[in-house]
Write a sequence for this structure.
């Protein structure tokens, strides 16, 4: 059973509602909507007037927030999928280049053999010109063979030139891709160093900065940012986020995902605007996002999300592991537009 109190004007209404311990995000939304409708009807039954506009505004705001979260999550998934496709295409191009190199080598060997045969037949042809008339028939046959070999030689040379040109073009594109990937990796490493230097004054146990899969991961512990079950960032956490914002605000080609994470310990009592750890993780991510944007980070480059207890670093087997899982991860992804343009042109 869940006990909730709602105050409208000077009237306080207490409502007791049975809820399930586990539900998905859609059922959560429906339960909240049903709860609000129930409270509205109850409040009307007590002859009190509820502001319909305020309710509709809150509901509209909730819908917009959920829609934006879904949109940003889809964009992140598309970016990660595109990154995997890009790696696969680069690998395929390199394999094609290796195969073309093998074919060019084979054609060059054939060209060398044909040239040798041609030189030999050409020599025989010149010898036959100086021979007696009885060899004229053989000379005609040799001439036909020589012309056929010459034609085959020309075709092989043209094929070899075409393959060499195609190979050179592919090698150029591979070099361009490798250069852009190298520049992207260098930029990611430089960003990681900037973030590390900006956060040097904080304990290593409270945060980590590392590069994984071409992205920079900044992991901040709960004890650096929040009190237990709170969504208000502590002064020490605000200072850390301000330093992080300084390192990120001038970065143009990046996308930032703020992910809230919790342990699997359920709430001991109901909290305002929160029903479970999932709500807590989302609200914490939103609080951090607001601090970053207030300190110069472009709001269009950042997304707030929460994963609750469903993406732990380690099993929640003891208090030490649970503390490790209560964290916020800030994931910085570089812009891959230049790579996509090269692949599309190819």
């Amino acid at each position: 059973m869940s006990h909730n109190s709602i105050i409208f004007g000077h009237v306080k209404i207490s409502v007791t509602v049975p809820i399930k311990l586990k539900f998905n995000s859609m059922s959560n939304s429906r339960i909240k909507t049903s709860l609000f409708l129930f409270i509205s009807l109850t409040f009307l039954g007590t002859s009190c007037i509820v502001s319909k506009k305020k309710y509709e505004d809150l509901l509209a705001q909730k819908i917009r927030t959920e829609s934006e979260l879904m949109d940003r999550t889809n964009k992140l998934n598309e970016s990660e999928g595109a990154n995997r496709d890009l790696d696969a295409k680069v690998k395929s191009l390199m394999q094609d280049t290796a195969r073309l190199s093998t074919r060019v080598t084979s054609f060059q060997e054939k060209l060398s053999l044909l040239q040798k045969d041609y030189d030999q037949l050409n020599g025989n042809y010149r010898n036959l010109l100086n021979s007696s008339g009885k060899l004229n028939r053989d000379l005609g046959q040799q001439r036909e063979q020589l012309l056929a070999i010459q034609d085959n030689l020309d075709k092989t040379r043209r094929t070899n030139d075409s393959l060499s040109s195609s190979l050179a073009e592919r090698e150029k594109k591979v070099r361009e891709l490798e250069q852009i990937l190298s520049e992207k990796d260098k930029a990611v490493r430089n960003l990681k160093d900037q973030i590390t230097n900006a956060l040097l004054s904080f304990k290593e146990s409270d945060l980590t900065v590392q590069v994984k899969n071409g992205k920079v991961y900044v992991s901040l512990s709960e004890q650096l940012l929040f009190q237990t079950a709170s969504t208000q960032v502590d002064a020490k956490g605000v200072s850390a986020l301000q330093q992080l914002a300084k390192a990120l605000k001038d970065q143009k080609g990046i996308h930032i995902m703020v992910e809230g994470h919790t342990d699997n310990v359920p709430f001991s009592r109901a909290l305002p605007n929160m029903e479970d750890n999932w709500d807590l993780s989302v609200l914490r991510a939103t609080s951090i996002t607001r601090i970053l944007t207030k300190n110069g980070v472009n709001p269009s480059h950042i997304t707030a999300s929460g994963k609750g207890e469903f993406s732990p670093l380690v099993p929640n087997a003891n208090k030490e592991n649970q503390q490790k899982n209560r964290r916020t991860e800030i994931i910085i992804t570089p812009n891959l537009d230049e790579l996509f343009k090269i692949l599309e042109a190819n």
Remarks:
- Residues 231 and 284 are 5 Å apart (CA to CA).
- The chain has eight helices and seven strands.
